[in-house]
Write a structure and sequence with these properties.
- One of its GO terms (molecular function) is hydrolase activity.
- This is Bifunctional GNAT family N-acetyltransferase/carbon-nitrogen hydrolase family protein.
- Keywords: Hydrolase.
- InterPro entries: Acyl_CoA_acyltransferase, C-N_Hydrolase, C-N_Hydrolase_sf, GNAT_dom.
- By secondary structure, the protein is an alpha+beta fold.
- It is built from 14 helices and 21 strands.
- Strand 8, helix 8 and strand 9 form a beta-alpha-beta unit.
- The chain is elongated.
């Protein structure tokens, strides 16, 4: 069956690297492609050198054994040349002394498709091969000087900048620039005299770039980050704690259990230490929570100890912190390297303000970890989209939301808003809440919760944008794996691109401080 299909097909396309036996076809294709450009045919010695110094960068598509399209490239240390270079400079007058295996940019020096094969998307195949090569070699980007061969038709009407805008808005068609923009390249700069004899382009070229979203530059502090993360979220049963030691026994049980699955993160709910407030129940609510705050440093230090000994990054829910005669609601990131950082709740609820006298913090930030860039928003903060957008602009990949809600409608606010945050910021969102009741604790007497991990809503993710979720109102844990590369791909190639398509020419979200 396969043989009959091949015999009846007019084409049999194969992508591969070039060899010197392809040289005559290279010349023939160039004569067809560049009739208006003189002296622009690659010499056999030049192709031979390119194949010798960088064989994997010289690519072609063949049809039944005959080359019908090809692409040539080198690797350069881009900072040596910058954005104001000519074609001859970047190829070292065709000697290719600019090529270096230690460079950071794949520079495209030629792409040619036999005109008889146009419409078959062979150029796209070659560009996809270049992108794969760029990713495999861990290069920062692909850069090239793109011709604008239809500019000569409009040079009396438009400047090059205006011409590019017209092409971008599809009011003018330019075969090269339109193709490059359709393949996720963006314009860095307009170059004058890039190829002086390119009369069709008016000697102009457009410096274009495609960024490798998988580029991984060594991080001297945290090392190379992983491509996936394993996340554990505790659906925490509020139960009486006879002492701080019995409270730690309950906490350590979950740390031990989740770390046994080699998880990277574990998150506890908001005010998960509330059981310890029972001993202060005879005080007013405001006094009781301030006395509870006396335990917070000890709990934080113990969580750091657990993070190190169990080799897991812990988001320690949240705890009341009393400092400078002010009461805050604070979550701690306790890293498995022994360091920790704090995220203060920004928006306190009316109950927190009126019953406890809490105030909000004044800063949100993305935290670096050995696995991913994360953000933390405590409960009510998840209902303010500006905060997570600020974190997304800082490169957040996973947002953790420890929460505490007493009724189903309060839980729904956190859940629905967290799902929205995942979609609009193209990140994963993990929510962790408490269940059960504490009869002797004012303001924390009853809880409703369901922990979950949410994703963006696109092809690479679950159809309902829910990676995992616990059983409502029952103590349990959820363990979920999330692919961080799927986020990077979504940013550039999603069916919709909420971050990339923002109209920053009209609006922007930022902190005033």
């Amino acid at each position: 069956m396969t043989e009959k299909q091949e015999e009846s097909s007019p084409h049999l396309l194969v992508t591969r690297t070039l060899d010197m036996g392809d040289y005559d076809r290279i010349v023939a294709i160039m004569h067809k492609c560049y009739p208006m450009m003189k002296g622009d045919i690659w010499l056999k010695s030049q192709i031979k050198k390119l194949i010798r110094i960088f064989p994997e960068g010289q690519l072609c598509v063949e049809d039944r054994g005959e080359v019908v399209a090809f692409a040539l490239s080198i690797i350069v240390d881009y900072k040596k040349y910058g954005d104001s270079h000519s074609y001859e400079q970047i190829i070292d007058d065709s000697n290719f002394g600019t090529h270096t295996a230690d460079g950071d940019v794949l520079y495209g020096i030629d792409v040619c498709v036999d005109p008889d094969y146009r419409g078959m998307r062979l150029g796209r195949r070659l560009y996809d091969m270049r992108k794969e090569l760029c990713e495999n070699l861990n290069l920062r980007s692909i850069v090239a000087g793109g011709r604008i061969p239809n500019y000569h038709k409009y040079k009396d009407q438009y400047t090059p900048k205006e011409y590019i805008q017209k092409v971008r808005h599809k009011e003018i068609y330019d075969p090269v620039l339109y193709f490059q923009m359709s393949n996720d390249f963006h314009v860095r700069k307009i170059l004058k005299n890039y190829i002086p004899y390119d009369k069709a382009s008016g000697s102009y070229a457009v410096l274009i770039e495609w960024n490798n979203i998988y580029y991984n530059e060594d991080d001297t502090h945290f090392g190379n980050q992983k491509n996936f993360a394993r996340i554990g979220a505790v659906q925490w049963q509020l139960r009486a704690a006879r002492s701080i030691d019995s409270f730690f026994e309950n906490v350590e049980f979950f740390v031990d259990a989740v770390s046994g699955y080699q998880a990277d993160f574990l998150v506890f709910p908001e005010l998960f230490n509330a059981p310890l407030m029972a001993e202060f129940n005879e005080d007013t609510a405001a006094k009781a929570i301030r006395k509870l705050a006396q335990y917070s440093n000890e709990i934080r230090d113990k969580m750091v100890e657990y993070a190190v000994s169990y080799n897991i990054n812990i988001i320690a829910g949240s705890m009341p912190v009393y400092e400078d005669e002010n009461l805050y609601n604070v979550s701690y990131l306790c890293r498995r390297d022994g360091s920790y950082e704090a995220q203060y709740k920004i928006h306190v609820t009316p109950a927190e303000r009126n019953d406890w006298g809490m105030i909000g913090g004044d800063k949100v930030q993305v935290f670096e970890t050995d696995t991913a860039k994360i953000g933390i928003l405590i409960c009510y903060d998840s209902e303010f989209p500006e905060l997570s957008r600020i974190l997304a602009d800082q490169g957040m990949e996973i947002l953790f939301v420890p929460f505490a809600t007493d009724m189903h409608n309060g839980y729904n606010r956190v859940r629905v808003c967290s799902m929205a945050r995942a979609i609009e910021n193209e990140c994963y969102v993990v929510i962790s809440g408490s269940v059960g009741n504490l009869p002797k604790v004012v303001n924390m007497d009853i809880q409703y919760g369901q922990s979950a991990v949410f994703s963006p809503s696109d092809f690479a993710f679950p159809h309902n944008a829910i990676v995992s979720e616990g059983t409502p109102n029952t103590e349990n844990t959820i363990i979920a794996d999330v692919d961080l590369n799927d986020l990077k791909h979504l940013h550039m190639h999603g069916s919709v691109r909420n971050l990339l398509d923002r109209r920053e020419d009209l609006y922007k979200v930022k902190f005033k401080k």
